[in-house]
Amino acid sequence: MDEKEALREKVIKEKRKTTLENPDFSIVWQAQPSGITGRILSFLHLNFTWYKITNDELMITKGFFNRRTNSIELYLLKDPDMHETLIQRMLKVGTVVVGIDTKNAHSRMDNPIILKDIEKPSEVRKLLRDYIEADVMERGINYFDKV
């Protein structure tokens, strides 16, 4: 068995440890939008949007009466970028925009994922970038750039 196959078997074994009694939901980071609107809604306990990064997926949960959680595997994400408006810089928040590898994503999401008004956006962008890279390496995925 070569090294690539051994790594694949290790990943499969780790993933199969997850059961209903032991859901491996290792949340690495979670936050709510913290812009002007987000802070007002949080103060009133009406902010029902959560962003979460786990070891192998990015999850966005929205809603109160009808809660919806969208999740996407980290290996399908690419190139996290950060944007900050003047108001966001004054509030010490920013927006992280993450592209999706549309070749492997089964076309269920064509638009980039936007994590809006999050605190410490540069740290979150770096954390997300590192976890994307780790998930890609763990799965043994190779990407080829166009020249």
Low-confidence stretches: none
The total tally of domains equals: 1
Q: How is the largest sheet built, in terms of strand order? A: 1-2-3-4
Rg, nearest Å? 17 Å
Mass-distribution shape: globular
* Helix and strand sequence: HEHEEEEHEEH
Structural class from helices and strands?
alpha+beta
Number of strands: 7
| CATH classification, class level | Mainly Beta
CATH topology term: PH-domain like
Which architecture per CATH?
A: Roll
Described by strand count, sense and barrel closure, the largest sheet is: 4 strands, antiparallel
Produce a short descriptive summary.
This protein is α+β, with helices and mostly antiparallel strands and 147 residues long. The chain has a single domain (26-139), classed as Roll (PH-domain like), CATH 2.30.29. 31% of the residues lie in helices and 30% in strands.
Describe the 3D structure:
31% of the residues lie in helices and 30% in strands. The chain contains four helices and seven strands. The chain is globular and about 55 Å long. It starts with a helix and ends in an 8-residue tail after the last helix. It has helices at residues 3-15, 36-43, 86-91, 121-139, and strands at residues 27-31, 50-54, 57-62, 68-73, 77-83, 93-100, 113-119. Strand 2 (50-54) and strand 3 form a beta hairpin. The model has no long low-confidence stretch (mean pLDDT 84). It has a single domain, classed as Roll (PH-domain like). With 147 residues, it is an alpha+beta fold. The strands form two sheets. A four-stranded antiparallel β-sheet has the order 1-2-3-4, with no helix packed on it. Strands 5-6-7 form a three-stranded antiparallel β-sheet.
